[in-house]
Amino acid sequence: VSPLVYGGFCTYPEMAKAGVGYFTDKLKVQNPKVMVVSIETAGGVEYAQFIADAVKKYGGTSSLVTMKITAADVTPQVLEIIKQKPDFITIYGVGNTAILTMKAMHQYGLKIPAFGISYLMSPQIYAAIGPEASAQYNVISCFTPGGADDSAGNKEMMAAAEKYNHTAMREDINYVAGWVAGQMAAQALQLAGPEPTRAKLVDAMSKGFTVNSNGLAAPIVFTPTDHSGPSSFRMFGYDYTAKKYVAFGQFSDYDKYMK
User: Fold this and answer.
1) DSSP symbols for 16-58
2) In the chain, N or C: fewer CB atoms in 10 Å?
3) pTM over 0.90
């Protein structure tokens, strides 16, 4: 564990555990069959392994289908989904990966639930997919996007975003992550005392501390031996009528999947 490195974003192993656990329970399937739809990268292969590990806990199986990051047509990948008939899929990649996959699945009449990695939560992605094609699209995240609940932390971030002309960004998960990272830094500086120095800050943080985001995330606990960061997740969808994200349950509801 490095005394200078602290995780501040959702991690892939935990995304896999929470996402697989949630849909296995929601769909009431035994021995779930899961497909990973990914861009052709080492990160995609690694994520597919995390999914395989998570699925194995439930006696299930998983497979991987890939596409170029510059893909403009994903018909072969969707035909493979039709062939394999998974219970649900998970998407790793960039915005276009999710957009193309969900729109093509809709064109083929597929109603297979899907969840994207945390980075694939943005209003632009949902706008491009559209309400019909995104009916099965969800995102697993350790952060709550702006407007998705009434927590004190969410209200505070939404107000600040409006004040500083960031209204268009407050629903983007990367904006929320930056806000929480700022809270982490501010709280860590307080631990260093009224006259903080680099040495005092490093020493104070190394003893462990908990970041309280007032509901934007579950409490983030750092210990002397664990700097991995956020470890609680939940699933989100999008309500086109209300024009806001919808959270499925509380962070604590997913704790059982993270073991």
Assistant:
1) HHHHHHHHHHHTT-SS-EEEEEEESSHHHHHHHHHHHHHHHTT
2) C
3) yes
